[in-house]
Amino acid sequence: MTPTLVRHHLSHAGPAARVDLWARARDWSEIQERMLVPLYEAVYERLEVGPGTRLLGLGCGSGLALVMAAARGAAITGVEPSSPERFALARQRLLPDTWDARAREATRLVRGTPMDAADAETPAYTLVTAFEPIGCRTGDAEGLGELLQGAKPLAERGAAVVLAGWGPPERCTTASVLHATTGPAEPVRASCRDDLERVVQEAGLRPDGSGRVACPFGYADLDSAVRGLLSTGLCDPALAVSDPAQVEKELTEALHPYQRPDGTVWMPNVFRYLIARVP
Fold first, then answer.
1. Which keywords does this Swiss-Prot/TrEMBL entry list (predicted)?
2. Is the terminal CB of the chain with fewer CB neighbours within 10 Å at N or C?
3. Enclosing H/E stretch for 245
4. d(C-alpha 3, C-alpha 77), whole Å
5. What is the pTM of this model?
6. What pLDDT score does 142 carry?
């Protein structure tokens, strides 16, 4: 597909930045998404995801977490409510044209809300995941809560629901880098330990354990690091009020302390996940 430049509208005041959303989605898929692989692996190992698992992935993005679950034998459904570009990449990964109808049976992708995934012929889900980490942007917890409210009726009683969040600020190098870049536009806020618990409580779910996972962000060079971090969307407030070249310059400068002598960039981070159960 030919990349298209579109206006990326944000909720706050100020001129919207022109963003190539197709390029951003590819950067997410090719550079940034793999940074959370240790998180996916830790959750799947702890919950023994396998052939008996029926997984509903909320905000599935370009689908890497679903690919990993499918490789374990799980039947997967991915829901992507906000990014048609990432969703298109997920379809390429998970529903290639070369697959026959039988190979597609255990895989569903839905562009929309969890309720759009409701299907009388589909058994209730045994696992619901929301791996997009919350805790850095104002309002992200509320958006996650809405997704969970839509997903809860689709899960069986006792099904596990997994939420992810950024770890303590002092253990998330990337948060400080992003904070230095966004500045007064809408600073990346410090992650609050209670964010995940509050979402679970408001969704009417029962907490059932948690864990922390080291997810270092490693890049081949500064250019890859800048592209990867921009693909997260966490710099969008700055892009809405500043020249993109200036934002990239500030991001590059903030990354310099984490560049190694060989040119690679390495930022230690810790992410937290919370497991809840459907009552």
1. Methyltransferase, Transferase
2. N
3. helix 244-255
4. 27
5. 0.88
6. 82
Amino acid type, 194: D
> What torsion do the CA atoms of 59, 61, 67, 73 make, to the nearest 10 degrees?
20
Q: What is the C-alpha to C-alpha distance for residues 142 and 88, in angstroms, rounded to an integer?
A: 26
How far is residue 17's CA from residue 244's CA, in Å, rounded to a whole number? Answer: 7
Q: How far is CA 120 from the centre of its chain?
A: 28
Are the C-beta atoms of residues 234 and 178 closer than 8 Å to each other? yes
Q: Cα separations (Å) of 132 from 33, 38, 144, 217?
A: 10, 14, 9, 15
Helix, strand, coil shares of the chain, percent, nearest 5, are 45, 25, 35
* pLDDT tier at 180, thresholds 50, 70, 90: confident
Check whether domain 17-170+189-218+269-277 has CATH 3.40.50.150, yes or no: yes
B/e letters for 237-266, b = 16+ CB within 10 Å, e = fewer, are bbbbbbeeeebbebbeebbeebbeeeeebe
DSSP tag of 259: B
**Domain edges within the chain:** 17-170+189-218+269-277
Q: What is the structure's pLDDT at 106?
A: 76
The rounded distance, in Å, linking the Cα atoms of 253 and 40 is 30
